[in-house]
Specification:
Blueprint lengths: L2 H20 L1 H5 L6 H17 L4 H4 L32 H17 L5 H8 L7 H12 L12 H16 L6 H9 L3
Length: 186
């Protein structure tokens, strides 16, 4: 194997180990003001996703775990053979876009609170919807019955991030990945 590739892989693994050991929470505060962190995020994120055990949503580039319904989503992978229940997207940005688009569509249908959105998104027949609602409310800081505006990028970002965290048990995506996915909605 080429020594340069070995060096780059070793550096990547070392960066992920240091980043993981210190904890994402300690570093997250500096993302917007730390140019080193802003530079390293796009490098570390894919390496971390490869090295760590990926969740089904992460493997499918579908962090919202959107089920197949026959709809042909933008960015949907041509090869859907990897999962018979959930959509597989070409990149996480397209999966995040789909989640954001769903949330905006829900608002158009009159679902505008965490309680109504999550009840629609994760029905009690398949989920502990009350626990889901409380978890998303705790992450976002919004009360379950507070009206939200999915046309507000900040509120949409918070809700998308919270759903990703609940669906996957974590959120491994950099802020710029989530922002890029949301920006694809148009």
């Amino acid at each position: 194997m080429n020594p340069r590739i070995i060096l780059l892989l070793g550096l990547g693994i070392a960066l992920v180990a240091v980043w993981s050991r210190r904890g994402q929470a300690m570093i997250t505060e500096a993302v917007e003001t730390d140019p080193v962190r802003a530079f390293l995020d796009p490098i570390i994120e894919p390496i971390q996703r490869i090295i760590t055990n990926m969740t089904r949503g992460e493997r499918n580039n579908n962090p919202g775990n959107i089920e197949r319904t026959g709809e042909n989503w933008q960015g949907m992978s041509v090869d859907q053979s990897g999962d018979s229940r959930f959509i597989v997207f070409d990149s996480p940005e397209y999966g995040i876009r789909a989640l954001g688009k769903l949330l905006k569509n829900y608002q158009g249908q009159g679902y505008n609170t965490i309680q109504s959105i999550i009840t629609r998104y994760a029905p009690g027949s398949e989920n502990d919807t009350a626990a889901y609602i409380n978890h998303v409310a705790a992450i976002t800081g919004f009360a379950p019955d507070t009206p939200l505006d999915m046309n507000d990028p900040a509120q949409l970002h918070l809700l998308v991030s919270a759903i990703i965290t609940h669906e996957n048990g974590r959120n491994v995506y950099a802020e710029n990945t989530i922002n890029e996915g949301i920006s694809l909605i148009g």
